[in-house]
Amino acid sequence: MKEFSENLSHEIQTPSAVIRGKLEHLINENITEKQAELISSAYKNNERITHIVRSLGMLAKLENEEFEAPETINLSPALEKKSCWTWRN
Question: I need a surface site. Which of 28, 40, 48, 84 has the fewest CB within 10 A?
């Protein structure tokens, strides 16, 4: 499953990057307002696809427990120091 999700992500991100580049190139050409609207719509939808793929990749990492265990951080000393400083001033 891990390998599948990595491959899927890569296989979608590569063409998406190519599409993004070509759309950005088209925007810089002499185009009509209607063409600009179509290009903008395609660009926005391509970005949505990219966002979905990133989200799916994150879900796959969570599912496969690919993140380090959380570390406990004691903020009490810093909060007490800040609280005392605020109180005195």
Answer: 28
Which pLDDT value is given to residue 80? Answer: 79
One-letter amino acid for residue 61 of the chain? K
- Shortest CA distance to 45 belongs to which of 24, 22, 20, 27? 20
Phi/psi class of residue 65: alpha, beta or left (left: φ > 0; alpha: ψ in -120 to 50)?
A: left
Write out the E strands in 39-89.
none
**Radius of gyration from C-alpha coordinates of the chain:** 23
Q: Residues in the chain with pLDDT < 70?
A: 1-2, 67, 83-89
The enclosing H or E element of 77 equals helix 76-88
Task: Look at residue 86 in the predicted model and tell me its pLDDT.
Answer: 54
